[in-house]
UniProtKB/TrEMBL annotation, chains A, B:
SUPFAM superfamilies listed in its UniProt record: PP2C-like
Pfam families reported in the protein's UniProt record: PP2C (PF00481)
UniProt lineage: Eukaryota, Metazoa, Chordata, Craniata, Vertebrata
Name of protein: Protein phosphatase 1M
Domain PPM-type phosphatase residues, every copy: 27-382
Listed GO CC annotations: mitochondrion
GO molecular function ontology, one term from the record: [pyruvate dehydrogenase (acetyl-transferring)]-phosphatase activity
InterPro entries, A to Z: PP2C, PPM-type-like_dom_sf, PPM-type_phosphatase-like_dom
């Protein structure tokens, strides 16, 4: 893998992190079976890690996450490293079958080495969320952050996402989305279902039903469009007084909010977050678990200008995948020899999304309003010039 | 639409239903505004309905479902019919805006008429489940069933599925899956999550963790492969005594079971079902909500031999989509003039999956074991020969 570049605008709740992750691995068997401790050879499996954290309610959670998540990942990978180089991981980590049918069951379940890396990432996010909870409590700080982490390990790229940042692969002939966004809108059914199971979480202040707009007194007794937790479609319900409460998930697009408070439904931190002027906790509705997508480099012929783009929502609010891919390809084609071209491309993407100040407004080149949010971008070249 | 054909083998917990569903519709406004009741014209919107129900623990739930589900759908469609012919359904069913911004919010949320039909189907399944619960309790009967329902309404095909039956469209140049299966394996995370939230549902008899095989005393203290509710990947956990309990979701493929009891995770009925020799109820882990897929006929040029195939798992256990599509196309090409060719094709598909008796075994033509389960198949021609 190659150069790493991050650029951000002057507004500041975003944090970036990148590093090498080396996982210690002992040659199995030697140590115990032969008691020749001196012969026990130590090897390292080395991976590469990049991550973006978009903070809210202050930058603290994002800072802690940028300092700890890679360590949690390293730790969780170390717990499974004895099995991660096998085509089929063994039922027992020691590699010794207790039962003759073990390999058969592992094969039946299609468990592969990459599933251990996915599991390690899922567990690492959960661990990191606990660390943030402790650190914030100890220092009496509040806030949370989204987390988007990429790990290149054993020939595969793993992208783990909890929040509304996004990663895409821009390849010569295609664009491959490597993440999806988790917002109150995309996770409406999960959130409403939790409120259905535990109504006390809403403390009588919110309604779990979704309506196209906030209801008013005039609507009582009328039949209006609504959705409950089990519905992908819409129905009509006769409005009761209780339906006039503020909706659990409300608003559309960038305006959508969970409990009127948060614009994301997954991320790290927010352990102390309450809905303003109430005792209602937001954390039970949040998830710190990432969705992990895997891209196998050994199955693809990676070209020199192929890159992974990771960016916070500040970029994607104003530029779509297609626009970003177009900018990436034309910039790299026009700047073949610049040794800093990947850094320059990251800067260029940030500048495009930030726009230019005209009168008192920031505007894009095409006349649309520019992004007012924090903007962070990684441009990660994928082509391997003989290095590992 | 056209002919309907169902065929089943001699084993018998499957039920089929099909009928026309006409929804009464009044011309809006006239009745109330002008009080000329005599001028109020009644129109009907007519749809067509087919459904398959695969019973377990006896055929009773499947029989009730086949008698009631179409009625529940008719009722739920009638509740929204005033809005279902509009391109954007109105915020208020009466069509009168309480608030100027109503149409804007409906448009922002992308609410379309088809979302009302999807919502009606979701609500109808839930209603039908309640009816089955009452009927079974009243007559002291037990059991449940899967439900796969297709509705052709206003130029679109809606397929609602709760269980492990399947529907596919076999078109001239493509095969379009119209449903996905809900089994303890495909819904593992939802089921494990519920057990995490409400551990008492397992009454200390089951473990919510998934392992590649049932653990034994020898495994205690060792690190074995496992998954929890938040994991798509796998990890290793040190086995404790509690992990030796029977797993909440156990087995693979057709052997997968929920609470050691059920092979499906969605369906109707089973209100009284308990795990054998315990007080543990299965119903809390089941969902009666269907996933609805929509196919818009107005966007496709439907050919004469294009059909919808609906079948219970007895067919799909031994034949894949591709094999079924191949049989459909070659059978219809070879039988152009037979007026009963769609019925004959349904019979042919059932016979192929049932196989032939050789010695004491039922075998497929290709030497594999045939289906021992009930087999029901609908072949529904889609081509409109000038009829509506």
């Amino acid at each position: 893998m190659g150069v790493i570049n991050a650029e951000k605008s002057e507004f500041n709740e975003d944090q970036a992190a990148c590093c090498q992750i080396s996982v210690r691995r002992r040659e199995p068997g030697l140590e115990e079976d032969e008691e020749w401790l001196i012969l026990c050879s130590t090897q390292f499996l080395t991976g590469y890690y990049w991550a973006l954290f978009d903070g809210h309610g202050g930058p603290e959670a994002a800072i802690i996450a940028s300092n700890y998540l890679h360590y949690c990942i390293k730790q969780k990978l170390e717990e499974v490293v004895g099995a991660v180089t096998e085509a089929s991981p063994p039922m027992h980590l020691s590699g010794r079958c207790v039962c003759d049918s073990d390999p058969q069951f592992v094969e039946e379940k299609h468990i592969r080495a990459e599933d251990l890396v996915v599991g390690a990432l899922e567990n690492a996010f959960q661990e990191c969320d606990e660390v943030i909870g402790q650190e914030m409590e100890a220092t009496n700080q509040t806030g949370g952050c989204t987390a988007l982490a990429a790990l290149y390990f054993q020939g595969k790229l793993y992208v783990a996402n909890a929040g509304d940042s996004r990663a895409i692969l821009v390849l010569k002939d295609s664009v491959v989305p490597m993440s999806c966004e988790f917002t109150p809108e995309t996770e409406r059914q999960r959130i409403q279902h939790l409120a259905f199971l535990f109504p006390s979480l809403l403390d009588g202040e919110f309604t779990r039903f979704e309506f196209p707009r906030r209801l008013k007194g005039d609507d009582v007794g009328q039949k209006v469009l609504y959705r409950d937790y089990f519905m992908e479609g819409w129905g009509y319900k006769t409005v009761e007084k209780a339906d006039l409460k503020y909706p659990l998930v409300h608003g559309h697009g960038k305006q959508a909010r969970l409990l009127g408070t948060l614009a994301v439904s997954r991320g790290l931190g927010d352990h102390q977050l309450k809905v303003i002027d109430t005792n209602i906790e937001v954390k039970p509705f949040l998830s710190c678990i990432p969705k992990v997508n895997v891209f196998d480099f050994t199955l693809h012929d990676i070209k020199e200008d192929d890159v992974l783009i990771m960016a916070t929502d500040g970029l994607w609010d104003v530029l779509c995948n297609k626009e970003v891919a177009h900018m990436v390809r034309s910039f790299l084609a026009e700047n073949r020899t610049d040794p800093h071209r990947f850094s320059e491309l990251a800067k260029c993407l940030v500048c495009r999304a930030r726009g230019k100040k005209r009168d008192h407004q920031w505007m894009l080149d095409d006349g649309h309003e520019a992004s007012y949010d924090d903007i962070s971008v990684f441009v990660i070249p994928l082509h391997n010039r003989g290095e590992d």
